[in-house]
Amino acid sequence: MGSVALIAWLISRHDLLDVRDALSQADLGGLAVLWLVSIAVTFVVDTLGLRMAFCLINGPIAWSKILKIKGVSYFLNIVNYAAASGGIAWSVSKRLRVPLAEAASTMLFLNVVDLLVLNALVSIGLGLEWFTEAQDTLLPAESIRPLLIANLCVYLLYFGSMTYWNLGWNYFVLGRLRPLAVFNAFRLATARIHIALFGARLVLLGVYIVMQYLALQMFVVDVPLGAVMIVNTVVTLVQTLPISIAGFGTVQVAMLELYAPYGSDSAILAYSTVSLLVFILVRASIGYVCLALDRKDASSDGPGVTMGGSAEGR
Fold first, then answer.
1. Is the whole-model pTM more than 0.90?
2. Measured between alpha carbons, how far apart are the two ends of the chain, in Å?
3. Residue 105: which residues within 8 A CB-CB, separation 6 or more?
4. Which among 55, 140, 230, 275 is least surrounded, fewest beta carbons within 10 Å?
5. pLDDT under 50 in the chain at which residues?
6. Sign of dihedral through CA atoms 177, 178, 184, 190?
């Protein structure tokens, strides 16, 4: 319902003919190549990060299995990011024969690492906004300093939590949380695991940043790289909210508000809508292929095997 209401509101506020004209002025050939390449690259890089996380924390899992699990999760991602994460955790728990809570813990930990990476990208974006000489910046100069302080607080919370999980500091009553299975990954994650996953997810989110920056230029939305780094974080968080289907409506509203200084509403609306549709359709195709391959493997492995074949031992 959230998506329907927001889309209806957007249609009432904007001329669809202007949106169509903005789309016709974009470099559609270049966009097709850019989007297809970025979808393929992010699929592989995201899968590598997933496999790294589960291998380091839960146990070895074959590349072919995690690739198909990630591909099939794109169907659930259409509903919501949290649903896709839950689906991945459930599937991996079957492969590795580990409790679902422990597999879900790894996904939760990976999401926390993603937040750290997004915060780091915001730090870079704020730095670029601070030193830019352009007149049309995303943030007024007086608001950058408080945001930098808030950005620093996120780092303090993240690294402060490591003292809780890795050094055993209980902070009064919080020690009771440590034995819970849902926090298994946080207990087991060493500094080496934090660094390895941070690097893997930085590559993934960096590809998204570059793709969005180039695509916006092709829609004649002249936004600086620093602003893209900041807006991408906001849009990513908004898209995960369970109030819309695949982010439809929420993504458009966020981009219209935040990219307003850099381009026309029609161009921003055209970009935010078409890019979302393309990513959903292509990823749904990937999911269909992965599901077909998984079913083929399951039938060849015999009855009782689901989504990715027989489970591996730890």
1. no
2. 43
3. 57, 181, 182, 183, 184, 185, 186
4. 140
5. 302-314
6. positive
User: Among residues of the chain, what percentage have pLDDT more than 90?
Assistant: 42
Task: Check: CB of residue 100 under 8 Å from CB of residue 85.
Answer: no
Identify the pLDDT of residue 81.
83
Amino acid identity, position 88: I
Q: For position 307, what pLDDT does the model report?
A: 46
pLDDT at 303: 47
311 within 8 A of 97, measured Cβ to Cβ: yes
The structural domains of the chain, with segments of one domain joined by +, span 2-297
